[in-house]
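As a warm-up, study this chain.
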Amino acid sequence: MKKVYSKIESIAGNVITVTAEDVRYGHLARVTSSIGSSLAEVIRLAGDKVSLQVFAGGRGISTGDEVVFLGHAMQVSFTDNLLGRIFDGSGNPRDNGPRLEESLVEIGGPSVNPAMRIIPRNMIRTGIPMIDVFNSLVESQKLPIFSVSGEPYNELLARVAMQAEVDLIILGGMGLKYDDYLYFREMLEEGGAMSRTIFFVHTASNPVVECLLVPDISLAVAERFALKGKKVLVLLTDMTNFSDSMKEIAITMEQVPSNRGYPGDLYSQLAARYEKAVDFEGAGSITILGVTTMPGDDVTHPVPDNTGYITEGQYYLRNGRIEPFGSLSRLKQLVNKDSREDHRALMDGMITLYANYKESLEKKSMGFRMSGWDEKLLKYGEIFERDMMDLSVNIPLEQALDRGWQILAECFDPAETGLRTELINKFWPGGRNEPDEESA
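Now compare it with the structure written out below.
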């Protein structure tokens, strides 16, 4: 039975407070005012004082308006009819399609029992060499993309959405500019990936509370599809906007602030979402790739700092490229040992040479005389950045590995690469050079 209250104790911005009993945290209520009705979510319980965040904002609400508690948390429909659809953070259609109300499931549930998880073992191929070759994305992994405003992180996510070898993409947008929302929609439609995508979007003009719901609603749907045997990739952008929305509500609630004004449970709130990444034995999986923008390119900012303790590595996106030194996929060794026998050795060898190139580049900028080895490294670095690091490069893993050998052959003699002889004999373009064999 729904409980109806007709007296609002206080109104502070988008937060209202009523005196009520038997109400749970996260439950929904409907607030009816003179200008219409809106959903609200319980965000604080202090005895019989219940604080609710009103989705549509506090404008037009008076103390005599009616509050009806619905007795359940936010729910989302779970059917195959979700595929190809676009919804807002409350699960309402944004694409002029029909509203879905069958097979409702609650969002924001607990993460999967660790005893039910299996060790990650499969690579998710994306067609992006800096991911596939150097920091492989692993099924059921949770990885952030650390970046700054202005970098093409949404373009990177769109490419991953179109090319990743998974069954289903769930895209959760938080605080998106309207242009970014249109970009995602057009790219997915033109690329033919919309039919396997579910898009939950919160734009900067939408209510703050909907921003907080996007990860939960995305992951609740992902979990249901994973239990049906689907390999689901959840793409979230941007988790800093999610954290800023948490901070805004915490300030409204007059909570004691922690580092830089963020609430003290920032770590727990982020972990509760990222820990939904899982590979189910005998079923599907959930893999999470989320953008975290760093204000001022400061990795010690509370959001990326806390994120780094939760996730299994990170991708650093700088100057339009995934940087090889700051980026790390901690689970890559579980899968790239089985992709091709030269994968791990080639990955290590090319990154070592690229580090040497950076040293030679610094020597050149300081006016030191360049040796023959330095000149080779400078040539190698330019080709590596153009043919491997550039995000426009779109080739399968095996072709990317072959291209890596070609780059080495263009710049070095086989003995200069530091790679094992048996790999050089098998993969070096055109075979090893005769002079090198004689000298060996």
